[in-house]
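Help!! Second protein's tokens look totally different from the first
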Amino acid sequence: MAASSTRSRTWSTHKEAAASTAGVGLGFVLSDVDDIVCLDLDHCLNPLTGQLSPWAAAIVRDAGATYVEVSPSGGGLHIWGRADVRHGRRIRRPDGTAVEIYGTGRYIAMTGRRHGSSPSVLADLSTLVARIAPGCQTHAVR
């Protein structure tokens, strides 16, 4: 049976997924059983130089000490953390770039390519999410 981001019976553990020969890599399903969120910053990283766009650098700075990795395209970032996000949002920026914030019902492909010296911990992103996307969050993380 094909995996689905909304049907938990199709999910597997990290150990099972890492040992599998199906698919082309690992990912994480954002669900309502935890408070893990992903901020997806599109078109913000120069894949040749590694330099971040100023707007993205400000978001990464404001996220604090949390896990950040380069997205599969090589030109974006995934910022991982904790917040209570039940209704995702896509915020289109005037320059055409976008920030997506998701906490449920999404599969996020992971690369394992850590951005800079980001730690392997998840910070509370509640304040950042509330600032970037008012109304996206139902309440602060406990």
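Here's the second one for comparison:
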Amino acid sequence: MFTEMNDRAKAAMEKSTKVGEELTEFTKGNMEALVASAKTAAKGAETLGQEVAEYGKKSFETASAAMKSMATVKSPTELFQLQSEFAKSSFDGAISEASKLSEAWIKLAGDVFQPLSSRYALAAEKFKSAAL
């Protein structure tokens, strides 16, 4: 009887140890996915920040050039023409940049959540197999 209890206790201990090791590995994988996700987010935010800064610089240069050309006009008609061309190009540029940035943010969000999504799928699979 004592031998049987000892064998059962030993089997339970081995099973608990195995479950603990699996849980540790799973948690380690989760942390690695979280770190990868954070790195992707930081790099993506840096890249997008640089793009916004470049667009701001380009816009400022374009506006400065437009103001210089408007300062040399000889008639109100020429001024209104330059002003409307500048307004149209600025608006078109802003719409284009906004579209580009929104696409980049959407892609970045997908890239950031991909490692976490993979871990979630693995967790769901493990719980499913454990339930069976």
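Reply: Different proteins will give different token patterns, so don't panic. The chain has a mean pLDDT of 90.
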